[in-house]
Please model this.
Amino acid sequence: MALRDILVVPDPILKKVSDRVDVVDDDLRALMDDMLETMYAAPGIGLAAIQIGVAKRVIVMDLAKQDEPKEPRHFVNPEILWASEETQPYEEGCLSVPEIYDEVERPAHVKLRYLDYHGKTIEEDAEGMYAVCIQHEMDHLDGVLFIDHLSRLKREQAVKKVKKQAKAA
Ligand code: GNR
Ligand code: NI
Model:
């Protein structure tokens, strides 16, 4: 396993549309292992492959609380089969937009289909934090960041702030 560097705005790679995965094999599992290690170290609750520069439709997530046992989840080629009309606002953050937090409104419930760590097809419902996080991560697969859901002014301010932080670091 290995820690990978997380790309931050305004890196143009983050805008790429990721490619579907053909097979879930040992190479892909090694990528998912690296992604989880990188996510836990950050720390974060989700990570899309493009955030470490790999344009594949792969996501990892762990929504377990700090004092609870780890619950790593893996998503390959995730699809949203249905999204509720009802939306919920949530204060989001992103490892690729460090130290910026703002409210995003998304469907409150979604039905998902994806392949798991073993390549098995899973269909399930997501709500609450799970729904927020999977939609945030799936946006990454299409080159979309949570700040793209904000006003242009807020988005530009966010990118400016991250650039300034990077310069100071
Ligand atoms: O660690 C993360 N926390 C978070 C909080 C609210 C909404 C979404 C997220 S995902 C983020 C990690 C990340 O950037 N994933 O792409
Ligand atoms: Ni993110």
Q: What stands out?
A: The mean pLDDT is 98. The two ends are 27 Å apart (CA to CA). The longest strand covers residues 73-83. The CA atoms of residues 109 and 131 lie 6 Å apart.
